[in-house]
Structures are given as structure tokens and as C-alpha cells.
Design a protein that fits this description.
Blueprint lengths: L8 H16 L1 H11 L4 H22 L5 H7 L1 H45 L6 H15 L9 H20 L6 H23 L8 H22 L5 H7 L2 H13 L6 H22 L1
Length: 285
Amino acid sequence: MHHRLAPSSARGLLYVALAGIAWGTGGPTGALLFQSSGLDSTAISFWRLLGGAVWLVAACRLLGRGPVIQQFAAAPVRYILSGLGLAVCQLGYFAAIPRVGVAVATVVSLGVGPLFIALGARERITGTLLLAVLGLALLVSDGGATGGASITGVAFSLLSGAGYALTTLLNRDRQDPVTSALLGFTTGAVILLPLAMIGGVTPAAVSWPLLAYFGLVPTALAYALFYTGLRSVRASTAAVVALIEPLLAALIGVLAFHEHLTPLGLTGAAVLLSAVLFQARRERQ
């Protein structure tokens, strides 16, 4: 196994911020895949994790990593649970959307993630963290939340946030974040495959470039950067800084899809960005 020095706090924050930016391109990519691939959400999630694993296999070979089976054998439960967390995060979110709408599903799943992480890491839930959740709620709801008050939908959203928290907590302090991400993606894809086969897993040929991008940037690159940042940044701080994701997704929506943010949405973006910057500044002190 290759042991490397952990990055500095400043560099760790940069890695997490870049991960959030990469994740921010995932939503628009997923929306395009729904239109062009002919796949349902479970199959798209399967291809996302499988694609991420394929890209990271190439990265491991390029970086001269040893056989990953040895790392898996050293802690199989950890990597199975990490893959389960990734699968649950995906499934919970997509199952919540038809029940409570995109806005509520996003606010609950992304909002409770940092809270669950802080609790799991036994870190204090700060005012900055709560402010970030408030900014997220204002940004995503944008004054026009849709979806009914479905208890089942909220439960699926909470499950998604719990899955995200689980994989984050399990991948703190990993000496080889790239291999850790690879093993998590592989086990997650194996978990999703039987469910994905129910609706069909063969994508339309036109969607292959998008699937390749989905596996590379918002999956392989994003998680490798995020796990690397976790080596020197507190888990709860990383989760807050990674909320750059919905900020970038909103910006892409405005620039590429001609969406509009109301004053409430702009206020939420400002509040969320302020919380992210303040949390990052506190981490460096």
C-alpha cells in the first residue's frame, strides 16, 4: 500500500471545493441522460458508479497502484458499507423526487448530510452549518417548492443523506483515497445491478459520451478529490464546503438552460456562499 503525507488544510479545502464544483455538473448531466439514454434513475446510477470505477482503474494503473484486492481484503466490511452508502444515496434521492419534488428532496438530502456527518464524527453542530442549510433551502426552493408533504418521500430523502454521511465517514483518513473510491464504486455498482436490470441497463448509443463524462467528472474525479480532502479537513467542514455543488448547479441552470432565480433564490445563494466561505476560513485558523 502506498502511504503519502496528508495534504495541508488549505490544500484539503481546495480539493473539497473542486469536488463540489465537479459534483455541480452532475445534476445537469443527469437531466440530459434522462432525456437521451432511455434508462431509469436506478440504471443511470448504476452506470455512474460503474463508469467511475472504470475511470479509477485506469487512474490506479497510471499511478502505479498495487492490486486493489489486497486493500479490499484488509477491510471488506468498510468497502461494502461504503458502496452501500453510495447506492443508498443515489436510490434514496431519486425515490424521493416523485414523492416530494426536486426542491424538497434536494434540501433534505443535502441538508441533513452535514448534520449526520457532524453527529457521526462527534463534531459540534455550529451556527455556520445551520446557516448553510438555511441558504440551501432558500436557494433550492426558490419560493416555489413543489411536491406534497409525503412522509415516505421525506424518509427517502433522509435515507439519501444518511448514505452520503456513511460513505463520507468511512473514507476519512484513508491513505489511498483513489483506491478507496474505486472499491466503493465497485461494490456500489454490484449492489445496484440487480435493481437496475429490472428496468433495463442498455443505454441508447447516443448517450455514451454523456455516461463517460458522468462517470469521470462528477463521480471518479469528484469523489477522489473529496476523499483526499477528508484527510486534512474535518468531515463536517468538508460537507459544508462541498455545498458549492448546488451553487454551481444553479449557475449552470441560469447560463445553459435559461432558468431564472427569484430574489429569494439569490438570497439563498448569497447565504450559502457566505456560510461556505466562513466555514473554510474557520478551518484554516
